[in-house]
Each structure stands twice: as C-alpha cells, then as structure tokens.
Design goal:
The complex is a heterodimer of chains A (about 500) and B (about 230). Helix content of chain A is about 75%, strand content about 0%. Chain A has 20 helices and two strands. In chain A, a hairpin with a 4-residue loop joins strand 1 and strand 2. In chain A, helix 5 runs antiparallel to helix 6, helix 13 runs antiparallel to helix 16 and helix 16 packs across helix 19. The longest helix of chain A has about 35 residues. Chain A starts with a helix and ends in a 6-residue tail after the last helix. Chain B has one domain. Chain B contains eight helices and no strands. Classes of the chains: A mainly alpha (about 500), B mainly alpha (about 230). Chains A and B meet through helix 5, helix 6, helix 8 and helix 9 of A and helix 1, helix 5, helix 6, helix 7 and helix 8 of B.
C-alpha cells in the first residue's frame, strides 16, 4: 500500500465516523463506528511507523509530511484514541445521556481527527490551524455534560487557549517575514524551508518569533504559567475526553515546540532559547508540585500531573542531544498510556463514590478490585517509580541534563519529582487505606452500570501491561528510531 | 524581495498605509474607552473595513492582485458577517454594557497608551536590526504589537462574554493588519483558511455563550468562579 493511501486511511477513518455519527442516531451504532475508526487508525499508525523511519516524505503538494517524529506522536495519539474509545463505551453509557450520545461520538471522532492532523502538517501555518481546530472541537467535549462547572471550564479553555495560540500565529508571521527577506515575498513556510533558511534569518526577529511561538504553543501544551485552562478543562470533561486531552492533544502541540527549538538551534540564537525552554519546563514542575500536594479533587490531581509531565518532556527537549530527545519521546508514549489509565481509574472511582473529592473516596480496592489494582499500579508508575516506563525516561532525561549546559535544572527536577512522588502517593494512600471504614462501606456502590464493567476495566489493563513492559525493557528498535529522530531534528537529513 | 516592499514605497502609498494602520489602532482605543457593547461592535466593524481597504491599497501599490480578493473577503467576513453574528448574540443576552470593569475606561486608555509605547520600542528595536528604521514596516509592527497588547488588556479588564470575544478578534485583527503590510505575499490558501477559521471560532463562541446563559445562568465571566485550585 502506498504511503499516501495509508495516511488517507488514517485520516478518513475518524472523519467518516464523525460524519456518520451525526447522521445515524442510535447510540450503540455510534459507539461501534467510533471504536471501529479508532482500531483502523491505530492499525494504520502501526503500519506507518516503520515506514516513516526512512522519511521524511512530503505528500499531497507538500502539505502533509510523514517523518519519524510525527509518526511517533501519531503512535501516542492513536493509542490514546483507541483506549479512550473503548473506555467511552462503558463510561458514557452510565452518564444517562443516551439521546445526545451520538453527538458525543461525532465530536470525539472529530477531535481525534484534528489531533491526528497536527503531527502530519508540513506547512507551519496549516499546523497552527490544526491546533486551533483541536481547541474548537474539544471545547464542546469539555462542556458536554452541560453542568455549570463544565460550561465554565469550556469557556475558560477556549478563551485562554485562543488568546495564547494567537501569540504563536504572531510568531509564525514574524518567521515568515524574516524568511521573506531571504526567499522572496511568496514561499511555502514548511518546517524544512524554515530550518534551511534559519541560519540566514535576522537573529533579533528570529529570537522574538521563537519566544512568541514557544509561549503560544506552550499555552496549548499547558506549560506554567500558561497552564491555567488545563486543570479546569481536564477535570470537567468526561473521563475519556480528559484522557484524550492529556495523552493525545498535549503531545500534538508539543511536537511544534520540539520542531521550533531546532529551528532556533539552526538560527544560531545562542543559549537563550534553550534556557527559556528549560526554565519554563522547570517552572511547570514547580507549579505542579505545589498543586499536587494540596489537591482535593481527583481529576484536578491528574490534570496537574499532566502539567508536571509536560514540564518533564519540555525539559527533555530543552536539554536536547540524542539522550534528551530519546528520553522526551519515550516519556511521551509512556505518559500517554499512563495518564489514560489514571483518568479511566478516576472516572470509575467518581462513579463508584459519587464524588470527585479525594476525601470522599475510601477503600478503592473493596469497591472496584480489578480496576483498583490497575489504578494504584498506574499511580506508582506516574510518579516515576520503577519498574514502569516513566522511570526509564525520567532517568534518561536527567542524564541528558547533566551533560548539558543547564545542569542546575536536573537538581531542581529531581527535588520536585521527589516532592510529587510523596504528595501524589499520599492521596492514593488516603483513598486506598482510609481511616473511615464504616462510612466508606456505606458509600460504596457498584461502579459501573449493568454490563459495562468490561469496557471500563479492559482499557486500564491494556494501558498498564505495555507500560510495565516499557519499564522492564527499552526496545532496541525504539533506540534506533530515536537516533534517527535526533539526527533529523539536528538537521542531519531533515525534511 | 519582500521586506523591501515596505521600505521603498511612493510617498502617497506610504501615507495611506500609515493613515489606515493608525486609524485601526485608534479604533482599538475607541473600544477600550467605551463601556457599551454596541460601540465595541461598531468600532470592530469599522476597523475591519479599514483593514480591507488597506489590503486593497497594498494590492494596488504592491502588485499583488490576489489581495483584492482577500480585501473583499475581509470586508465581507470581518466587516459584515462577524459583526452580524455578534449582534445576534448581544440581542439574545439582554446586556448592553459592561457593568463591572476591573479598570475604568479612562484608566484603560492610559494603560493602553503605555502599551503602545512599549510596542513602539520593541518594533523600533526589531526594525533597526534590519535597517528599516522609520519605514512603514516599523509602523506595521507597532500597530500589530499594540493591538495584540490592547486585546490582552481588554481580556483582562472586561468581564462580559461579548467583550472577551471582541478582545480575541482584536488580537486577530492586529495580526492580520500587520501581516498584510509585512508579508503581502503570504500564500493565499493560508489567509483564506485563517479567515474561515475565524468564522468557526465565532460560531463556537456563540454556541458556548448560549450554554453559559442556560447552564451557568450568567453572561459575565466574573460569575465564573467555581473552578479554582
């Protein structure tokens, strides 16, 4: 099969599902359509992944690019889309919104489509539009439950992110302007064109443009101090949407930052761009540590954990070098798996205990033994403890940092990781081994509606098993993949 | 070569560009200095028309015929359709003015003026490094950054949902105005998609406003305080 056909399948599957779900109303059909699209997209990415290694390939008039970095992000996105689609079936049935459910699946597939589009976009302007579209679609998923809180979260999300991302557009225009002084007034601003012209750009304008772009896409990634929309949106949407926001969407925006960091390198802007990236990454960890230790709501806890992990990935790209990039990419995939698991568990617990408050959740293992076991294993994993994937990637990023210029950040990162480890697991201690046994026993009810348990529990284990495997064994093929990506980003044989 | 377009212009074109850019900036100040939603809307519509005229002027002097199309679409989308959509939202809301600004209009004007000075310093610095000091390019940068900052200021100090939508549209207008002067040769497709994107954005905002009124019972973001920490 040709590469173009593969990309077409990858994008058409969720598009078809989204359109059909608008027309066909029965909820059971919509569930099936979305799940089928997720499976097809996932399969397409698996086929695409090894073939992208020999890329980059430009398709369809140069508007689509298939390169190893993009394919890697697609893998994270498609994995989360599949897991969240399975989980949606169980979770959404128990919300009792049967008549509106087809709209949920239409939006969900549409959201998946926009997140899959981002990493494939070769023209930087079109990439910006893809990121903007993700916001517009996911806003309605965040507000889907139509409660006061969820509509408030949706509003804050769209206003903060639209305003933030307009800074990125300004930065892109400045890059285009700086490039037009060299390349003439009309040219296609692709990633490769920008990197090629970068050494000849005016450094003052390139620096201003880079900072604007970093702040703009950083808003979408949820880096502190632009993270303010993230805890609201992640906590008020339905649990599978939270998983998609955290595991898929943030990565799609992160890829833009990774590519721009290397444009900044090529433009020879000195140490400042990377220092800014590292400082913002460390600040995200700091803010996350503060809010994680004092958190009282279960999904906000997960949301701040996303701020933390985006900070870590940013640090990985900021430290740079083959080691930093490998760590950041490994972290990206492991975090996508892990955070999906955590949001699924949080959704189950919210159903079981009728509350978002950590203080109202006790003896989780009694209420939901199979899901509870996966959830606490995920909690240990997400704090970066061995033997799970995030441990390996965090150690790799720390090593990359020690070798680089900003080694102070390694010690900050290490200290904050320990604080987060204690703070995060303390909440789980309270939820699993609480003090009020009799109150808890009264509050517990069956976490799932009749016949939906399997849909809610299965994706948690599907996430946990590869997460454990990634912790025990760093596949050789991945190392090779990361080496190619590092070379590509450094401009070795870039697109 | 692109940058030189803005550097070597006939004096008439230079004055026209300057006049249109500065008038657009002044209209942003009109929005800043008023508390009536209708006045915001009119100022925004007029600003969009000025930008459309600017596009047409650039098409004429710069020899970019495709910009005539962009000018027509800008007038239609930014100057007519968006204000109409917003007007419909305002009518439904039964709110016609800002009640609780965090900063009175008069003080906002002063802060806005300071922001323009800051934008001018930054723009001059950028222009100087390219040897473009004193050209219309520096003015375009100044107006672009100023409208950006004024948009952010409006987002911060105004709390009615309509004001916030208009603030984001001012951000967009600023970028669009600047890009017309700085990079008139930007591929047509990108400009078209961004225009279309703007329509979708406002449609989405409109639907969300309806949800806010129905489910949160308010059209003021001051009331949206249930999510913290």
């Amino acid at each position: 099969m040709s590469l173009a056909a593969l990309v077409a399948i990858l994008l058409l599957a969720p598009l078809a599902a989204a359109l059909l779900c608008i027309v066909i109303r029965p909820a059971r059909v919509a569930e099936f359509l979305n799940l089928a699209a997720a499976i097809i997209a996932f399969a397409a990415v698996l086929v695409l992944l090894p073939r992208a290694l020999h890329g980059p390939y430009a398709l369809w008039g140069g508007y689509v690019i298939v390169d190893p970095l993009g394919a890697w992000v697609l893998l994270s996105v498609a994995t989360v889309y599949l897991l969240a689609s399975i989980y949606s079936i169980g979770y959404m049935r128990s919300l009792g919104e049967e008549t509106r459910l087809h709209r949920y699946y239409a939006l969900f597939a549409g959201f998946a489509l926009t997140t899959l589009l981002g990493p494939l976009m070769n023209n930087i302007g079109v990439y910006w539009i893809a990121i903007e579209l993700t916001t517009l679609v996911s806003t309605f998923l965040v507000g889907f439950e139509r409660s006061r809180e969820s509509v408030e979260a949706a509003w804050k999300y769209i206003v903060v992110v639209s305003a933030g991302i307009s800074l990125a557009l300004l930065g892109i225009i400045l890059f285009y302007w700086a490039g037009s002084l060299q390349l003439g007034p009309t040219y296609d601003l692709t990633w490769s064109a920008l990197r090629a012209v970068a050494p000849r750009l005016d450094p003052t304008i390139a620096l201003a443009a880079f900072l604007l772009v970093f702040i703009g896409f950083g808003t979408k990634v949820g880096l502190a101090p632009m993270h303010t929309w993230l805890p609201d949106a992640h906590s008020e949407g339905p649990a599978p949407v939270s998983a998609m926001l955290s595991g898929a969407l943030l990565n799609t925006a992160m890829i833009g930052i990774a590519r721009f960091i290397h444009v900044a390198d090529a433009a020879r802007l000195g140490a400042l761009p990377r220092t800014v990236v590292v400082v913002i990454g460390a600040l995200s960890l700091f803010i996350a540590a503060l809010f994680i230790t004092r958190q009282t709501e279960i999904k906000r806890l997960m949301a701040y954990s996303s701020v933390e992990h985006m900070g870590i990935i940013t640090l990985g790209f900021g430290f740079g070098g083959p080691l930093g990039i490998a760590g950041a990419l490994y972290h990206m995939l492991a975090h996508s798996l892990n955070k999906s698991l955590m949001f699924f568990g949080a959704g189950d617990a919210m159903h079981a205990f009728h509350s978002k408050r950590i203080g109202r959740i006790h003896y989780v293992l009694t209420a939901m033994p199979v899901a509870g076991l996966a959830w606490i294993a995920g909690a240990i994993a997400i704090t970066g403890a061995p033997p799970f994937g995030l441990f390996l990637s965090e150690v790799t990023i720390l090593r990359a940092g020690l070798a680089g210029a900003d080694s102070w950040a390694v010690f900050v990162m290490l200290a904050l990781l320990i604080v987060i480890f204690i703070g995060f697991l303390n909440h789980f201690r309270a939820m699993y081994f609480g003090e009020h046994a009799e109150a808890a026993a009264a509050a517990v009810r069956r976490p799932h509606a009749e016949g939906t348990a399997i849909w809610c529990v299965l994706p948690m284990w599907l996430a946990l098993v590869p997460l454990l495997a990634l912790g025990l064994w760093w596949p050789q093929a991945f190392s090779h993949y990361f080496t190619v990506i590092a070379a590509e980003l450094a401009g070795g044989h870039g697109p | 070569m692109g940058g030189i377009f803005a550097a070597h212009l006939p004096p008439l074109a230079d004055s026209l560009f300057s006049l249109l850019a500065i008038s657009s900036l002044l209209l942003a100040f009109v929005m800043l200095g008023s508390r009536w939603l209708n006045e915001y809307l009119i100022a925004f519509a007029v600003e969009s028309w000025l930008i459309a005229i600017l596009s047409a002027t650039i098409a004429y002097y710069g020899g970019y015929p495709e910009l005539y199309g962009i000018a027509a679409l800008t007038a239609l989308v930014r100057g007519v359709v968006l204000p109409y959509l917003l007007l419909r939202i305002i009518r439904r809301l039964k709110v016609d003015r800002e009640l609780h600004e965090r900063l009175a209009p008069s003080s906002s004007l002063v802060v806005g003026a300071l922001l323009v000075m800051f934008a001018f310093v930054v723009a001059t610095h950028l222009g100087a490094s390219l040897g473009l000091a004193g050209t219309v390019a520096v003015l375009a940068l100044t107006v672009m950054f100023s409208m950006k900052l004024i948009g952010f200021l409006m987002l911060v100090v105004r709390s009615e949902v309509i004001s916030q939508i208009l603030a984001i549209l001012v951000l967009e207008n600023g970028i669009f105005l600047g890009s017309q002067i700085l990079v008139p040769g930007m591929p047509l497709l990108i400009e078209l998609v961004i225009l279309f994107d703007l329509l979708v954005v406002v449609a989405c905002f409109g639907m969300l406003v309806r949800y806010l009124v129905v489910h949160a019972g308010t059209s003021s973001t001051r009331e949206l305080r249930s999510l913290t920490g």
